[in-house]
Amino acid sequence: xxxKFVVEEKEDTEKESSKMLRIGESDFQRQLLNSSDxxxxxxxxxxxxxxTIDLELQSMSxxxxxxxxxxxxxxxxxxxxxxxxxxxxxxxxxxNVFLKYNRQYLMDxxxxxxxxxxxxxxxxxxxxxxx
Length: 131
Known about the structure:
mainly alpha; 7 helices
């Protein structure tokens, strides 16, 4: 008896190369970059484990392995979620964690100031009436 090994050829090299281009990009990052709907993005995040969310928010800025585009998209998500009044406490918690981990990058990047102002505006409550 002589052992023989069967080597399977890869049939779909295009799929393999597209996977290789995406290496290092998490499912969360792909979802964020491809989503324009705050409701579906929030639903996606709610299904994630808390430590996973924490890790994703930590690694969002380019200084931590993410990208400027990820930061912009997450700011858009937060602003839209606040504007739509989606799960206020949860979105506020995500906002606080995001700002905690990405504060330095946000402060050092002038192009993000408009989005930060927009986010800050969504937090403001209407003025109270005095009788």
